[in-house]
Design a protein that fits this description.
Helix content is about 80%, strand content about 0%. It has about 100 residues and is mainly alpha-helical.
């Protein structure tokens, strides 16, 4: 920064704004959902690639395709598992009764 930075008054105002934004749950959910969508899209792409490689490996009985399928499956699980765990943990929140 070229200038002297924020004045004391500006720093107090900025702190107040940041504190207000931290309490906004709707904003927090909106910002977090964007990351989840990208992760879900990546997991979907890896899943589709896994299925395509599996079908190709099954039809041709090709070892490289089989190894590619195994690698894609590993990446699919690594990408999707954290999201699935978060989803399952959210379904088991205290106060919720299991259905069934």
């Amino acid at each position: 920064m070229d200038g002297a930075g924020l004045s004391d008054r500006e720093q107090r105002v900025l702190s107040a704004i940041e504190a207000e934004l931290r309490t906004d749950r709707a904003l927090d959910r909106m910002l977090r959902s964007g990351r989840r969508r990208r992760r879900a899209a990546r997991a979907g792409v890896w899943g589709a690639l896994t299925v395509a490689l599996f079908v190709a490996a099954s039809a041709t009985v090709s070892e490289p395709l089989l190894w590619g399928c195994a690698a894609a499956l590993t990446l699919t699980v690594v990408t999707a598992l954290p999201q699935a765990v978060r989803w399952a943990a959210g379904r088991r929140r205290p106060g919720r009764h299991p259905e069934g």
